[in-house]
């Protein structure tokens, strides 16, 4: 993935950011406030066993849409995702030990969870599919099929940021 500067946008008091992850990585770039996020990563093909069911995860580019609304906020949640060895608590914990992390999209200061809208918007992009139905969305109030998405090609940070900014703006005008 080419090295890109962070794309920053402001929407009222809320901040949007697309942050490429290359090392050395400074945790301070992730704000401690609450918000929603998308974690972009690459996986080589692997076999997962979740609840006695074996699943093949194809090699390719993935994104996982989530929210960090607890007291630790975005920084705490995302730093946990970036640590390879940890106790498995969320579905994404099955994948992160094998992931090559590429970028983060953050929606800081959002009230409530935006992960469903993010996943639904990204599903509209060409060549994006759902590799594991139910993954990360078992408690989803909007009945999303999955919060994990797959693409055979690299994600375009600028395209995604602009699309999500438009999605957020459109949705906020409706409420």
SSE topology:
Layout: E1 7-11, E2 14-20, E3 35-43, E4 46-50, E5 53-57, E6 60-68, H1 73-82, E7 100-108, H2 115-122, E8 148-151, H3 157-174
Antiparallel strand pairs: 1-2, 2-7, 3-6, 3-7, 4-5, 6-8
Helix pairs in contact: 2-3
Walkthrough of the structure:
By secondary structure, the protein is an alpha+beta fold. It has one domain (13-174). Helix content is 21%, strand content 30%. The chain is built from three helices and eight strands; from the N terminus they run ββββββαβαβα. The strands form two sheets. A six-stranded antiparallel β-sheet has the order 1-2-7-3-6-8. Helix 2 crosses helix 3 (157-174). The longest helix has 18 residues, at 157-174. The protein is globular. The model is unreliable at 1-5 (pLDDT under 50).
Note the main sheet. Answer: 6 strands, antiparallel
Helix/strand structural class:
alpha+beta
What is the overall silhouette? globular
**Strand share of the residues?**
25-35%
Mean pLDDT across every amino acid position = 84
Name the helicity range.
10-25%
In spatial order, strands of the major sheet run: 1-2-7-3-6-8
Unreliable stretches? 1-5
- Gyration radius, in Å: 15 Å
How many E strands?
Answer: 8
Task: Give the helix tally.
Answer: 3
Distance N to C terminus: 37 Å
Number of domains: 1
- Secondary-structure element order, N to C: EEEEEEHEHEH
């Amino acid at each position: 993935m080419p090295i890109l500067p962070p794309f920053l946008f402001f929407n009222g008091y809320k901040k949007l950011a697309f942050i490429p992850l290359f090392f050395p990585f400074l945790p301070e770039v992730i704000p401690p406030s609450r918000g929603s996020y998308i974690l972009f990563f690459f996986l080589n093909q692997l076999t997962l066993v979740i609840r006695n069911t074996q699943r093949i995860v194809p090699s390719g580019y993935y994104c996982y849409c989530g929210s960090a609304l607890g007291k630790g906020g975005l920084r705490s949640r995302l730093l946990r995702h970036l640590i390879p060895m940890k106790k498995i608590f969320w579905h994404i914990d099955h994948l992160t030990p094998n992931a090559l992390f590429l970028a983060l999209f953050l929606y800081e200061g959002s009230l409530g969870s935006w992960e469903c809208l993010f996943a639904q918007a990204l599903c509209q992009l060409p060549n994006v599919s759902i590799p594991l139905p139910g993954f990360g969305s078992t408690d989803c109030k909007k009945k999303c099929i999955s919060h994990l998405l797959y693409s055979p090609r690299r994600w375009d940070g600028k395209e995604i940021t602009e699309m999500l900014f438009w999605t957020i703006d459109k949705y906020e005008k409706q409420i």
